[in-house]
Recover the amino acids of this structure.
């Protein structure tokens, strides 16, 4: 093995500055894609269409905790220096409401497929995993993905536990690793697909040196050790299966508002209800909308709902997310983004609840 | 053509005026229903029976308690609208006080006042087919129930939290991101998360959702700085008589 100098050029990887990042957004848009990425809006870092790098939340970070989220000024101008916000890419891949079919009284017409081609910009590794899991369920065209590797996990993050970060796994076209230091503000860019590589050739950059790659690897590796939370190190699927009758569900239910926020912010929760609308002009439309297993109507079968208690509804959500998702899709439904912890008004922490179940027995180590 | 009658009990008229606020839909609606009784529109009143009765207001007098039974008998469908009709409204504050004392203080000749000791929802007196919550009701929900009944389908009136609508709208939670007190997690959906959309917390005018966990929300509201007095006000104003716990 030859050890190269710090200045040795690494194949495929390039380094962009802010100008290059801006060019990347513009190139993706020029190709006809709607580029969506993080923006500062309504005291949160949400997702919206980007016109340029100026739209990114440069210099803004977040402080998170159970039931708590605040934006804060950073000491640097990092654009990806924030953990998961209130929204996820689910909003675009699996919209909150989507028309299925319509009728004008003469027949039924399937709703046209959305012609929008998305480029997702600044996708965290946890969300990259979530996109894969969600698309496994809802399908649809693949977006162009520019991932942003995580170098600064938040207080409610636990992607390491779920094997979904902080480094980007598969599923990206380009992966960026941001660094702001004495040598400037820059992004190591790695292509994951030929399409990604082709796009990178069209933006101003310099070749990446071994040093750039090592720094990025070091930053991401360090992030793995700074997760705010972790899941108990047991087989979660077994843990949930063994705890169907645990008394702990009642303890959670005392705190749980059954408001459904956790499922709505979860980047993989995919359930929908079907609604029919008719208007006064003889038109009808059938649509689907995001539903939640915390809604009583969600379990309405012939004659009534089967999960009326808060305990049974929380158990359903957590058991599906961490346990039976494996049976259904061969993987966990959780990526460790921490949104359900931060955006639960009551601050219920899925990692704490899993730990409580593990303490009372049930899962095998 | 189906007939519609709009009835008022103890209320402010705001909910029935929501029907007149349906400006774009009023003319198509007039083509499909016959309005047989609607005093905010016309003094002319036709005798029953009626296909759909829309009832606003709560029952606060012996006369109203009689009248709602007559309206029920005359109506194939009874849709009750607004916080007054569904929970007793703000006037249900009397349920926690001495009405005789009010009467003696407010009126020069209290012997002329015939009022019940309580303000109660329509469902406490007769069977109702559909309830629309809110103070006032949501225009879209009113059209939904009317168009559903005309089409012979079940109206889509979710009994879940305001949060579900808030999140579908893509709003950022005001409680989590700003510490603004919000009753959304225990409040019945239907408004489309109107207040959070204009940077306010929900104040519960749609009343409790099905099986709310208000005891779990109270300490969170206190943490945002609400005093006990303020807590009593938000839970005991528009839907004072409703079952929040």
């Amino acid at each position: 093995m030859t050890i190269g100098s710090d200045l040795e050029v690494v194949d495929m990887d390039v380094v962009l500055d802010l100008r290059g990042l801006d060019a990347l957004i513009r190139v993706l848009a020029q190709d006809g894609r709607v580029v969506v990425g993080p923006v500062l809006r309504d005291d949160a870092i949400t997702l919206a269409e980007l016109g340029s790098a100026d739209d990114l939340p440069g210099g803004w970070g977040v402080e998170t905790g159970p039931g708590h989220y605040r934006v804060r000024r950073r000491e640097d101008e990092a654009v990806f220096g924030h953990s998961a916000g209130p929204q996820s890419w689910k909003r675009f891949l699996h919209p909150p409401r989507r028309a299925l079919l319509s009728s004008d009284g003469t027949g039924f017409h399937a709703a046209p497929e959305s012609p929008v081609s998305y480029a997702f910009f600044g996708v965290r590794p946890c969300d990259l995993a979530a996109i894969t899991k969600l698309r496994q369920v809802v399908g649809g065209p693949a977006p162009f993905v520019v991932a942003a590797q995580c170098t600064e996990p938040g207080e409610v993050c636990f992607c390491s536990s779920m094997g979904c970060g902080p480094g980007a796994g598969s599923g990206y076209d380009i992966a960026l690793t941001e660094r702001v230091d004495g040598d400037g503000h820059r992004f190591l860019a790695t292509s994951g697909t030929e399409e990604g590589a082709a796009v990178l050739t069209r933006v101003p950059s310099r070749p990446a040196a071994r040093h750039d790659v090592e720094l990025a690897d070091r930053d991401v590796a360090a992030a793995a050790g700074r997760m705010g939370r972790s899941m108990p190190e047991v087989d979660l699927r077994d843990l949930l299966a063994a705890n169907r009758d645990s008394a702990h569900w009642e303890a959670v239910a005392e705190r749980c508002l059954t408001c459904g926020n956790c499922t709505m912010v979860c980047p993989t929760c995919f359930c929908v209800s079907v609604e029919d609308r008719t208007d006064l002009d003889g038109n009808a439309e059938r649509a689907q909308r995001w539903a939640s297993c915390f809604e009583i109507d969600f379990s309405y079968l012939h004659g009534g709902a089967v999960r009326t208690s808060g305990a049974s509804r929380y158990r359903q959500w957590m058991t599906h997310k961490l346990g039976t998702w494996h049976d259904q899709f061969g993987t966990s439904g959780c990526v460790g983004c921490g949104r359900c912890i931060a955006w639960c008004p009551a601050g219920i922490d899925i990692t704490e609840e899993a730990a409580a179940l593990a303490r009372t027995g049930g899962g095998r180590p | 053509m189906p007939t519609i009658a709009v009835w008022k009990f103890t209320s402010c008229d705001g909910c029935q005026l929501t029907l007149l606020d349906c400006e774009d839909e009023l003319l198509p609606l007039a083509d499909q229903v016959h309005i047989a009784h609607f005093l905010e529109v016309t003094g002319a009143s036709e005798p029953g029976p009626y296909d759909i009765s829309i009832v606003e207001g709560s029952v606060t007098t012996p006369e109203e308690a009689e009248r709602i039974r007559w309206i029920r008998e005359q109506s194939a469908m009874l849709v009750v609208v607004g916080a007054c009709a569904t929970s007793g409204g703000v006037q249900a504050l009397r349920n926690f006080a001495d009405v005789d004392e009010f009467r003696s203080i407010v009126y020069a000749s209290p012997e002329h006042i015939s009022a019940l000791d309580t303000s109660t929802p329509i469902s406490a007196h007769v069977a109702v087919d559909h309830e629309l919550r809110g103070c006032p009701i949501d225009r879209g929900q009113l059209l939904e129930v009317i168009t559903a009944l005309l089409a012979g389908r079940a109206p889509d009136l979710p009994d879940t939290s305001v949060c579900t609508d808030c999140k579908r709208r893509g709003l950022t939670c005001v409680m989590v991101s700003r510490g603004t007190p919000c009753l959304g997690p225990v409040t019945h959906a239907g408004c489309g998360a109107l207040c959070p959309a204009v940077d306010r917390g929900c104040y519960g005018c749609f009343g409790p959702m099905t099986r709310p966990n208000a005891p779990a929300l109270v300490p969170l509201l206190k943490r945002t700085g609400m005093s006990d007095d303020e807590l009593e006000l938000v839970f005991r104003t528009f839907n004072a008589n409703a079952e929040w716990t």
Observations:
- Chain A touches chain B through 47 residues (CB under 8 Å).
